[in-house]
Design goal:
The structure is a homodimer. Chain A is an alpha+beta fold. Chain A is built from 15 helices and 23 strands. In chain A, helix 12 runs antiparallel to helix 13 (510-523). Chains A and B meet through helix 3, helix 4, strand 6, strand 7 and strand 8 of A and helix 3, helix 4, strand 6, strand 7 and strand 8 of B. Strand 23 of chain A pairs antiparallel with strand 23 (584-586) of chain B.
């Protein structure tokens, strides 16, 4: 019976189709029996069309329509009628018409769904993932996934027009666990050996530059076997870009133009360029983070200079040990009570601060317990620093340089939210550059690459790589949107000698470097061009562009925080025979 | 120094750029010292430009140019000169100009490559894979990879215009080893459990139809842990398509239009449609294969009817046991000697045939040792069957129906090649439909799904699924180009009851079905639309379109037949710590 082809989708018919005989297929969204007529909203991906069953047209079919239930899949044939003016639904593209049905076929029945297919309801997260196919029928998810599909195309069209070549790199690659943990794939042909799933196609895209492809991109799945923080997925998608014969600005320009193109095409918004650029040092100093949200102020002031000769002991000690006294001042007008200040104190203490010092700045001068320790010139300097405040509150943290500023950055974010300062109607775009090359890994007690070990040091820092590695800056750049890092990249090392030196700087022995990255070191010796690139977090980009609250709302089949797929039950046990073929046995579970 | 941006690529300059000051960057392809001038062919992805160093322009730079070697990466600045008419190279896009250099920088040196970067040389396969970055610099591979990149776009543009939504399905999925062997990924969070890499996104794309996406596609990596036959790769790419509310013809039309679009866009060739359609039975009967190459004739004739009352014992026995007597006749004119016939006999025997019977058909009548067993009416019938032959040779195989025809198919292919009958300048397109649903797996001694277990049986065969499973035909279709299956698909089962019956037919117990495919059976109960789809082998398509001899020539980083990556040495050993985290130990290697 369903050999009759549909003539239209459920989002297509309008007054101009009046009197047409049509065939629609879709899902029963809702069912109403109104005084002898049955009205059904028929739904598909494209929209909703109202179809009407009347006993006067065909009694048998009218009776069968009474048996329809939510989410049944049906085929109807009928004639397009104009709705009476009083029944026109202006919220619906097809709201001016309805179909008077003369033929009905149930293509498939449906059990009663465990939740209603509607955007306006709150559904248990586990249930949603378990019945993902029903969750995906909801309008918001459907439109997110369709949006995502359009975004792939916009990105590809944009980059293709710029002569970028899309090249697939392997998913079964060599395990090089530098950074996060690899997912492993046991080899059957070489028992005891493993492939790894790529955390990024980093080495391959560099090899492609050595191969002369000049401009590469790929929208590619990457994998990290990490304990999942909120809103991370074990597999994620990135827009991966690499270019030859470039400096930082060339890559940043391509990335910035791509973002502008995306906002223009997808949201019809023209962004102003160039995006502002902050150095890492500035970002840390003024915003207490490497990914500042510029949609509000609350810039951090460095008061260390003011307190260089202070009598207040805890500040004096901080000054002496080259720490920082950092402050945020804001117009308060007495809204923040002592109790609230205590809560903020608790907040910064939970981040490791000793305590929170506060001052009120009013027309009459400074108030607060700190004031009694302050010299007149310190008071004057404070008042000048915060001269814009009429009835202000100043929060001060003092301590070790970077940790203190990072805590201040957290406090700034919280204040921005609490004081409702974030202009959510705008987006803030920002480049952060000149990152330190290294960061100290407290767990492993060694310096690790902040970006990755293939990132080039700044030319002017090359000479002190061995003597003062922590002072070396990297040729790296991050693109930040509204306080979220949306892309990160760098100019790469293209000299195998420098690459070897960097491996040593990272405490990777020559032997280990050879074993893990020997192929790259070798490739760099056969005519590697200067090159660099960037990678965008695609899922997060879709999330920001669609205003979604979670990655799960922009990925068709997401996993839970423990990397479970609730719909199909992956991961699952496998046959012992399969493991034997791989040369593996399980360590007995207790 | 290399901060100077390049002004042009090496494939860009022409006479209209005369006298321009330009900066090029690229690889030294070749080096000639001709009477006081040094000529270098500078190469990048876009082309080759001749650059000239003269001691009269700058002696120091001329001297430095003498130190350049093949594959060095250099930057040059210079002025565009027109070449003297006698030096114009018409084979080169930039062949009318050259650059007189006044500035040179060596961006990177290169060791002497282990092979010349040239299309015209024969290189050891292992060496090529080991130095893939050098192999990829060759013109043919570069253009194949760029072609592949363009093909992605053509496919996506085509399908997007038809309202298909591109949706990413998971790479970490549930292991459902039905068909080939899965690659497994051990789970760290759930020790003893495993993800599998998808052999195809089959179940997910069906779920997407249940979710109402109506038209889905994806260009997606798939994985099979098989002992690799020639020209298979453990990871491969497919164009995956699924549609709701469709019959066979709808999917075939979309696929056919896609192929036509591809040939038109990529090769500027307009294909005639509709493509011919053969049933599986016809294809087997006439070509001895389910993927006939229609670029030549040699159609197999079924002689069983002629020999239904034969005195020739071995034929009589075949007729009695419902086997087949099959023949190919061709114009030979005595070219095929007895010795050659012996070789063909050896060939079919290596495929399992008892022997090869042959007859010569000349103006004077039939010749050959068989003739003495033939009745006059059999001779007459044979002569009528092959009446088009003037001086012909007839090869006859007799035996069990399908194996005999398959052997005849192999013989037909070999004869097509030997007799130079294949019209290599054309492409033959063909649909094969009405496949048997099942095939008998000799190894596992059970019926397995020929396509996959989600393929719908033909409506008219539903009733005999349990009684005569081997007679059931599937709603499956393959697209064949030049004897290669390039796409395969089917209308799927959308009724969970029928799906359960098919699982039982395949000897998959209800419990096993529930464990492996329960999520799909469940999804089918919540309003699954009728749906079907198709998948194209993308790598193979690129291979055919570029006329490449091997999949390795169209994949950036291919693996060897034993799934090794010779460039980076994957798979490799991993730390015991990594295995411990996964709850695994290796079975000791002997």
């Amino acid at each position: 019976m369903h050999k009759i082809p549909r003539t239209h989708t459920c989002g297509e018919l309008s007054v101009s189709d009046k009197d047409k005989k049509v065939c629609l297929k879709g899902w029963v969204k809702s069912w109403r029996d109104l005084g002898g007529l049955i009205f059904i909203d028929l739904r598909d991906r494209y929209g909703i069309t109202q179809v009407v069953f009347s006993p006067e047209i065909n009694t048998a079919i009218y009776e069968r329509a009474r048996g329809l239930r939510s989410e049944y899949v049906i085929m109807i044939e009928g004639v397009v009628y104009l709705r009476p003016a009083s029944n026109v639904n202006k919220n619906l593209a097809t709201g001016e018409i309805e179909i008077m049905v003369h033929e009905l076929e149930v293509l498939n029945v449906a059990k009663t769904p465990p939740f209603e297919i509607s955007d306006d309801i709150d559904i248990n997260e586990e249930l949603k993932l378990q019945y993902r196919y029903l969750d995906l029928r909801r309008n918001r998810l459907q439109s997110n996934i369709v949006f995502r599909s359009r975004l792939y195309k916009v990105v590809r069209d944009h980059l293709t027009a710029l002569n970028f070549v899309e090249i697939e790199t392997p998913i079964l690659m060599k395990s090089t666990p530098e950074g996060a943990r690899d997912f492993l794939v046991p080899s059957r042909n070489y028992k005891g050996k493993f492939y790894a799933l790529p955390q990024s196609p980093q080495t391959y895209k560099q090899i492609l530059m050595v191969a002369g492809f000049d401009r590469y991109f790929q929208i590619v799945k990457c994998f990290r076997d990490e304990d999942l923080r909120k809103d991370r997925q074990p597999e994620f998608t990135q827009i991966d870009i690499e270019m030859s014969f470039v400096e930082e600005n060339d890559v940043m320009q391509v990335a910035e133009d791509l973002v502008k193109g995306i906002y223009s095409e997808m949201l019809k918004r023209e962004l102003k360029d160039p995006f502002p650029v902050l150095t890492y040092d500035q970002a840390l100093q003024e915003y207490g983070t490497d990914k500042p949200d510029l949609r509000f102020g609350l810039i951090i002031k460095n008061l260390t200079g003011i307190f260089c000769k202070t009598d207040f002991k805890s500040f004096a000690q901080v000054v002496e040990t080259k720490g920082v006294v950092a402050a945020i001042g804001f117009e308060d007008s007495g809204k923040i009570t002592r109790k609230m200040i205590d809560q903020y104190t608790g907040f910064v203490q939970s981040l490791g601060a000793v305590g929170l010092v506060w001052l009120r700045l009013r027309g009459t001068g400074l108030e607060g317990s700190l004031t009694k320790y302050l010299k007149p010139e310190e008071k004057a300097a404070l008042q000048e620093t915060f001269q814009d405040l009429k009835d202000g509150l100043i929060f001060i943290l003092a301590g070790e340089y970077e940790p203190t500023l990072l805590r201040m950055g957290e406090l700034r974010l919280r204040l921005g939210q609490d004081l409702n300062l974030i202009r959510k109607d705008q987006d803030s775009f920002l480049w952060v550059v000149d990152f330190p090359m290294l960061e100290f890994d407290e767990k492993e007690k060694r310096w690790i690459a902040r970006h990755h070990p293939f990132t080039s040091p700044k030319r002017e820092d090359l000479d002190r790589m061995e003597m003062a590695p922590h002072e070396v800056k990297a040729r790296a750049y991050d693109l930040v949107i509204n306080g979220t890092e949306i892309a990160g990249g760098s100019i790469r090392i293209y000299d195998s000698e420098i690459q070897s030196r960097v491996f040593r700087m990272l405490n990777i022995s020559d032997q280990e470097a050879e074993g893990k990255f020997g192929f790259l070191l070798k490739a760099l010796q056969y005519g590697a061009p200067p090159h660099g690139g960037i990678a965008f977090g695609f899922d997060r980009l879709v999330m920001i562009l669609t205003g979604s609250a979670s990655l799960r709302d922009v990925i068709a089949f997401p996993k839970t925080a423990s990397a479970l797929s609730l719909m199909d039950g992956a991961p699952d046990v496998v046959d012992t025979k399969q493991l034997e073929e791989l040369g593996l046995i399980l360590i007995d579970k207790k």
